[in-house]
Amino acid sequence: MTEYTQITSNRFKTWLIMFLFSLFFVGVVYILARGFGFDGPSGLGFVGFALIVTGIINFFSYFYSDKIVMAISRAKQIQKKDNPTLFRTVENLCIASGLPMPKVYIIDDSAPNAFATGRSPKHSAIAFTSGILDKLNKLELEGVVAHELSHVGNRDTLLMAVVSILVGTVALLSDWYFRSMLWGGRDNDDNNQSNAIFMILAIVMAILAPLIGTLIQFAISRKREFLADASGALLTRNPDSLADALIKISNDPEPLEAANRATEPLYIVNPFKGKQLTAAFANLFNTHPSIEERVKALRAMQ
Fold first, then answer.
1. Structural domain count, the chain
2. Cys-Cys crosslink for 224: which of 42, 156, 177, 297, Cβ 3.0 to 4.6 Å?
3. Catalytic residue among 140, 148, 257, 293
4. Alpha helices of 73-110 — where are they, by DSSP H?
């Protein structure tokens, strides 16, 4: 399989999942609205209201998510004079990919890892731990930089921010629904049989929807990692270097102290060592594909 077929396949799978997730989101909100006691037209209006609120949250996330993520990660922006080798590597790959130069940050942590964030290629940033700069050779570091630039070019950071907000909205509405039940719900005596059916469906959705939404979020995250691997390999024309980097990062025993559950999906390798689930079903709960799968896909590129 070539880099081009890997990229095409992963893009198609990601957008298919996103389309199904959008339908799932609208369906969940509508059922919860009917469970709240809203009738058909009012239920659709509730869906519209939820989409507007989600859009407003996305708007603020669009402009400020990168600053928030860097602050949470305790990352410090550097200039070319602070690390000329790293800057030249990023600059050269930006020229090769046609992307603008992102802001470069370093996290003072000996565990090797890296991530990209930002709302667009013109407003992007890449963070590297001090450990990844010390422990990878030049070609391996180049593979990591290409991977992170691919996330920027593919707008993965924006996509994952939108998905996270949609999942959060579903969880919030589910919580509201359970709270409304404690307070007696919304008074609506019209068509009691229909209301009872939607109330039962809403209870089921309120229980299952947050879990299903999270599983879809993780599935999208895993597909975007495969896509960034393939795109990064295409950029450097050296998939083996990225594969070697992934193996070296994953085999490093040090956990990344700067990471948390909110930033976990951003990193090139799961920052919580030993927390990657390996069973077939359990893999659904992983934010990253297994290193074995990623390396196998990279080695297979010709």
1. 1
2. 156
3. 148
4. 84-97
Vertex 119, ends 117 and 121: CA angle to 5°?
A: 85
Domain that holds residue 245: 3-299
Burial class (CB in 10 A: 0-12, 13-18, 19+), 213: buried
Query: Tokens representing 100?
Result: 């603008």
Q: Is 190 helix (H, G, I), strand (E, B) or coil?
A: coil
DSSP per residue, 209-260:
HHHHHHHHHHHHHHHHHHHHHHHHHHHHT-HHHHHHHHHHHHH-----TT--
Known catalytic residue: 148? yes
Q: Cα–Cα distance between 47 and 31 in angstroms, integer?
A: 9
Compute the distance between CA of residue 251 and CA of residue 112 in angstroms, rounded to an integer.
10
Contact of 240 with 294, CB cutoff 8 Å: no
Dist. CA 228–CA 153, nearest whole Å: 9
Report the predicted TM-score, pTM, of the whole model to 2 decimal places: 0.79
Side chain identity at residue 56, one-letter code: I
Along the 302 residues of the chain, how does pLDDT read in single tens digits?
A: 555 576 676 567 667 776 777 788 888 888 888 777 777 677 677 777 777 776 776 677 667 777 888 988 999 999 999 999 999 999 999 999 999 999 999 999 999 999 999 878 898 999 999 999 999 999 999 999 999 999 998 888 777 777 777 787 788 878 877 887 776 555 555 555 556 787 888 888 888 888 888 888 888 889 889 999 999 999 999 999 999 999 999 999 888 988 887 788 889 999 986 655 555 566 777 888 999 999 999 999 86
**Torsion angle (degrees, nearest 10) of CA 157, 223, 128, 263:** 60
In this structure, are residues 110 and 129 in contact, taking their beta carbons and an 8 Å threshold?
Answer: yes
160 residue type, one letter: M
